[in-house]
Amino acid sequence: MSSLAIEAEHLVKKFGDQTAVDDVSFSVPEGSVLGLLGPNGAGKTTTVRMMTTLAKPTSGTARVAGHDVLREPDAVRRAMGLTGQAATVDELLTGRENLRLIGSLYGLSASYVKAAGADLLERFSLAEAGDRTVKTYSGGMRRRLDLAVSLIATPPVLFLDEPTTGLDPRSRVELWEVLRGLVKDGTTLLLTTQYLEEADQLADRIVVIDRGQIIAEGTPLELKDRSGKASLVLTVSRAEDLQTAADMLRQRVSEVHVDEAARQLTAPAEGLRDMTRIAAVFEDSEIELDDLGLKRPSLDDVFLHLTGHRAEDVATETEEQAS
């Protein structure tokens, strides 16, 4: 069994009478990914700030690479990297100069920083832009450089606070690929995100946090299953076949929802076995299908099931309180 790279024990953070984080505990084995999932204002960033020595817990503690955040803050900082919600690179410097600057702050030798910087620029597809000022970079390029800077000292543990917020879909997928490569090389990741899709793509396990408390944890599939089973979604090619297809489907499942406008049928399903079974039925019929697939619950479905409210409601409430 892998040793633990990150441990949180009964973390509490209060700001006056407000409790931002309330008795949060979890652990992350070496070389794995934990997704801290929740809406805006849930307490994710505050938790990360306590674990990275940027904020002192009101009570409880945490360990990073075996070092206590309260008793050994310097050792914790040497063992980890942090990428916040906004890119923190200097836009007046080039990408290479940003890496050189952070390397010097770590006290690394110039020769090491030069070699490691070149390797990181290549690894993050920034080699051609390495001598351009960062103000000329796209949002995705800045995020990749921000991540590269956090890795110049090769930390074994990396904290990523909503790393893909504001990125376009292509840049998000590119960054996911980079993160998968880091994990393959042995880096332990803790990432906060509002997106179930992101946690699903990257995390081995997920901790769901809402209003400062952990409300659920498990694998991505376990969490989605808790908010309801998958749905089988079938789209017929011809509208005139919709009712016949619905009748055929009702012979095999308990409930069928018909959407005439979309020529679509939806029914509860246990998994891929149901999909292949239904596909075989329609393959032997004269009804043509445009699509047949499984639909898993969304982040909003998970939050609605676990808390009784939608994730977007908490985000709106938080924004109103801040205004």
TrEMBL record:
Belongs to the ABC transporter superfamily. Drug exporter-1 (DrugE1) (TC 3.A.1.105) family. Keywords: Antibiotic resistance, ATP-binding, Cell membrane, Membrane, Nucleotide-binding, Translocase, Transport. It comes from the Bacteria. Its main location: membrane. NCBIfam families: drrA. It comes from Pedococcus dokdonensis. Residues 6-236 form the ABC transporter domain. One of its GO terms (biological process) is doxorubicin transport. It is a peripheral membrane protein. GO terms for cellular component: plasma membrane. InterPro entries: AAA+_ATPase, ABC_transporter-like_ATP-bd, ABC_transporter-like_CS, ABC_transporter_ATP-binding, DrrA, P-loop_NTPase. It is found in: Cell membrane. This is ABC-2 type transport system ATP-binding protein.
